[in-house]
Specification:
The chain is an all-alpha fold. 82% of the residues lie in helices and 0% in strands. α10 runs antiparallel to α11. The longest helix has 48 residues. The radius of gyration is 27 Å and the shape is flat. The model has no long low-confidence stretch (mean pLDDT 80).
């Protein structure tokens, strides 16, 4: 078993070294591409070449589409193919490290448990990374949905006080300068910068809706674009109707999050209950034996 693990380890290291030499500076431009959570960019560059040459994207189109779609919702349409490649490289890098680590542990100890555990984690960790990516997308959508009714209420108040829609949105963005990482205000800041860069109100609003990729934001965008030219009471009334509907959806999301939080507490409560039983029951059991 030890010689087999040594062969596997040497093979993995040699393959990585050959790919490192072959790829050269091909992926240097991707090092500066902003993307959170990537810790093995340099280690994964040779594996990016392996992904391209092996045609993984064509063999697993459904998986690649889901990953790319999720990354587009988080980071936008620009450089989505490059980010998908980086994410795949990160997954393979972790798998490669786990296989090498498992082989080394088995080689030193002689126990095949290390190799089995390394192989199992090499398969399970990429699946967990994909699942975590989809959870981030759902959390982003829920954060947008939770804040959208507040934004809409502020716009209704400002427009009712005589502000234009553009100026009302700018004031709302300025009042939330501290929410740098909130997805809704982040996209709104991009939209206001597009206005300053020469985009029309309609075009900037449509781009904002595409970047958010949330049905309620699309409804908000459509309502504003259909009614903002009219102004007056009709526009404010349409926004108020939309606000009431969004508040109901916000309540539903809050209830869902509350139920998820309570379900997560079940396991710790069971563990605490078992610990209490052991602490209380052990002295009684020992007294019975005496």
């Amino acid at each position: 078993m030890r010689w087999l693990c040594a062969v596997v380890t040497i093979f993995l290291l040699v393959v990585w070294a050959l790919l490192r030499i072959k790829c050269g500076k091909r992926y240097e431009g991707l090092r500066e591409l902003p993307m959170e959570g990537l810790r093995l960019r340099k280690l994964g560059e040779p594996l990016l070449l392996l992904i391209e040459k092996s045609g993984i994207a064509s063999r697993f189109p459904s998986l690649m589409f889901r990953i790319q779609r999720s990354l587009q919702r988080i980071y936008g349409m620009r450089y989505s193919a490059e980010r998908t490649l980086l994410f795949m490289g990160e997954m393979l890098s972790y798998s490669w490290l786990l296989l090498v680590g498992g082989s080394l542990i088995t080689g030193f100890s002689g126990d095949q448990t290390g190799l089995i555990l390394g192989f199992f984690l090499a398969v399970a960790l990429p699946a967990a990374m994909v699942s975590d990516l989809h959870k981030k997308v759902r959390a982003r959508e829920q954060n947008i949905m939770l804040e959208l009714p507040e934004l809409l209420n502020s716009i209704v108040l400002l427009v009712g006080a005589g502000e234009t829609v553009q100026r009302a949105i700018i004031r709302c963005v300025e009042s939330h300068r501290g929410d740098v990482n909130h997805p809704l205000y982040k996209e709104l800041r991009i939209m206001t910068s597009e206005w300053e860069g020469g985009y029309s109100f309609q075009q900037a609003f449509e781009n904002f809706s595409k970047r958010c990729a949330v049905q309620e934001v699309s409804l908000f965008t459509t309502t504003v674009l259909l009614n903002y030219r009219r102004g007056g009471a009709d526009f404010v009334l349409s926004l108020r109707d939309l606000s009431r509907m969004l508040w109901e959806k916000r309540k539903a999301i809050s209830r869902t999050r509350g139920e998820q939080a309570s379900s997560k507490l079940v396991f710790p409560m069971v563990v605490i209950f078992l610990i209490v039983i052991v602490l209380v029951g052990t002295p009684a059991f020992m007294m019975l034996k005496m």
